[in-house]
Design a protein that fits this description.
- About 25% of the residues are buried.
- A hairpin with a 5-residue loop joins β8 and β9.
- With about 450 residues, the chain is of the alpha+beta class.
- Helix content is about 40%, strand content about 15%.
- A six-stranded antiparallel β-barrel has the order 1-2-3-4-6-5.
- The protein is globular.
Length: about 450
């Protein structure tokens, strides 16, 4: 049978793309099978080794990453109990860049700050990271820190789409005030307080983490700082105006923003500048209009404290000692503490179930898609038309429509008339789901999972 040049090229490109997708799906299936085994059986299948001059650690899996570092959980090879720690791994070439000062700040501040609500640091050294699956080694710098398995405060708000009550929130804020008071008394400021940097240990105790932006306060210069650093949404207006500022006042401003997020699940404003619509109302003392825009029902005690904390004039913000005496903070009982712990547990269980559900949908979808692609390749006829079969998406099946049920695999830059799509990162391939598949949240959940 004669096949012209263009048809042959199209066939080769099609088969090449199919091969890439099948390889990706095989990796996902293998990972899902590994996750079904207990940790004791799975440790020897795929792990990395971190060696220093005196110690050797087994790194089980990556649990986080940043611009210059990756975080793994692991244990000491000689430890019979296999106590889990977190290891912040930085490549040596990254250590030579501007991130060196951030790493030094984190190490020096954590070594000096010992508090029940601050993450612990145990060790830092140079070593060699050996990845068993790739059989490669590289020189790294690592920081061994406390492992916090129950996620960040941000997860408990964002994943559940549910704010905390005022009584629950005041316990969290009170803990932050006491911890910050300890930090400030030791002449440090954090400068990057936010829900993402407040984590929970195995007993749901709050821990402030990420001291890379922490700074030693220079008492001789009245504690003023000049470096513009932090997360803009939580930074004070004086810092954003690029003026010299008080690190303590900047931390107090961040507490105000966190307070609002806890009780509403929303940001009070995008950024604390005059051009921001909502913060401009605060600057101009249009309090009632601000609350009308936010449409939330909160106590007067909360509103008074919130506005004092995020005041444009830093001299009018209360100190931590004054905050402790505030009625909204001081008015709580032991039942509120127990209620918060129960709430943390319930939300954590919800997050675990949600993540497992998404993962199971994704794995099932990959397996079914794998079978579908193989069927296309086997049953492909001479005219390059494909025999159709029902494709299962989660627990729902699309209608058996020859035209609408075709899966199109194209280059990213080619426009297609579609309604639902899933983007697989790190591959120049997109899977397009037709609009005939009984409305499902699969594309959105998959895209979140892949991110």
């Amino acid at each position: 049978m004669y096949i012209n040049y263009h048809t042959a090229i199209s066939l080769i490109l099609f088969l090449y793309k199919i091969t890439i997708i099948l390889n990706l799906i095989k990796k996902m299936e293998l990972k899902s099978l590994n996750n079904k085994f207990p940790k004791e059986k799975n440790d020897n299948l795929n792990y990395s080794i971190l060696e220093s001059e005196t110690k050797k650690y087994i790194l089980l899996e990556k649990i986080g990453s940043g611009a210059t570092s990756k975080i793994y959980k692991g244990y000491n090879e000689l430890d019979t109990e296999k106590k889990i720690y977190a290891f912040k791994i930085i490549k040596q070439e990254k250590l030579l860049e501007a991130s060196t000062n951030i790493i030094k700040n984190e190490i020096s501040s954590l070594q000096k700050l010992q508090h029940p609500n601050i993450i612990k640091i145990y060790e830092n050294d140079f070593g060699i990271l050996i990845k068993k699956n790739k059989k490669k080694s590289k020189k790294v710098f690592y920081i061994k820190i406390e492992y916090l398995p129950n996620g960040s405060l941000f997860d408990y708000i964002y994943e559940t789409k549910k704010p905390f009550t005022e009584n629950q929130s005041k316990i969290i804020i009170k803990t932050l005030i006491e911890t910050l008071n300890y930090i400030h008394e030791n002449n440090y400021c954090h400068r990057d307080l936010k829900p993402e940097n407040i984590m929970l240990d195995e007993n749901y105790n709050l821990k402030i983490v990420d001291f890379g932006f922490a700074e030693k306060l220079n008492i001789n210069l009245n504690g003023k700082l000049n470096s513009i650093i932090g997360t803009p949404s939580y930074s004070s207006p004086e810092l954003l105006l690029k003026k010299s500022y008080y690190g303590i006042s900047n931390d107090i401003f961040a507490i105000g923003v966190i307070m609002f997020i806890l009780v509403t699940g929303k940001m009070p404003f995008k950024i604390a500048i005059k051009d921001d619509i909502h913060y401009n109302l605060i600057i101009n003392n249009q309090i009632e209009k601000f609350w009308e825009c936010k449409n939330v029902n909160l106590s007067n005690e909360f509103k008074i404290l919130f506005f004092s904390l995020i005041n444009f004039d830093y001299t009018l913000r209360p100190s931590l000692s004054e905050m402790k005496l505030c009625k909204w903070i001081s008015d709580f009982c032991l039942n509120d503490v127990n209620e918060l712990n129960c709430e943390f547990k319930q939300r954590h269980n919800f997050i675990l179930i949600k993540k497992n559900k998404i993962q199971n949908i994704f794995i099932n979808n990959c397996i079914n898609f794998n079978k579908y692609i193989k069927d296309i390749v086997v049953n492909r006829d001479n005219s390059f038309e494909y025999k159709q079969k029902n494709f299962i998406i989660g627990n729902k099946t699309s209608r058996n429509d020859k035209k609408k049920n075709i899966f199109i695999i194209e280059k990213i830059n080619k426009k297609q008339k579609i309604e639902k799509k899933v983007n697989i990162n790190n591959n120049n391939i997109k899977l397009f789901f037709n609009n005939d598949s009984n409305e499902s949240d699969l594309p959105s959940t998959l895209s979140q999972l892949l991110k």
